[in-house]
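Lecture 7 notes: from sequence to structure.

We start with a single chain of 153 residues. Read the sequence below before looking at the structure.
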Amino acid sequence: MDLGTRGPAVDTALATSVPGVFAAGNLVHAAETADVAALGGRHAARGIAAFLRAGPGPGSAPGPVRLPVTAERPLLWVTPNALRAGGRAPPRGRFVLRSDVCARLARLEVWQDGRRLATGVSFGMKPDRPVRLSASWTSRADPGGGPVTVRLA
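Now the structure, written as tokens:
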């Protein structure tokens, strides 16, 4: 479970740490609109179908590397909160964050092991409102590196 979202920790395919168990919609990040929840479900369905095609039989390969993605205060949480190395992008190609600050223009940065992977801008950040961050940086994350952190600059 993720302490920030108070829901299951999921990777970019919306898979949990339990093989074959996926989570989407308001279970992953509460208080989203029905269309956002439905699109998350569609995204999870692709991962579920791939999992079922691969089959977890005896001698199957270990699961993909999962890098934790965390949010640094005053950001409250980020989801998906794990990056599936070499995997697919998160739903709609972006991560969702929540903050407890107001800012007309907020600069978000993504870091791993002292290396900045990306910088993004959020317009109109408000407490407990979703903020979106493009997932274009995910290919620059080192699968063998430490956790990825999103912070306000």
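The beta strands are 66-71, 75-79, 82-84, 94-99, 103-112, 115-125, 131-134, 148-152. Keep this in mind for problem set 3.
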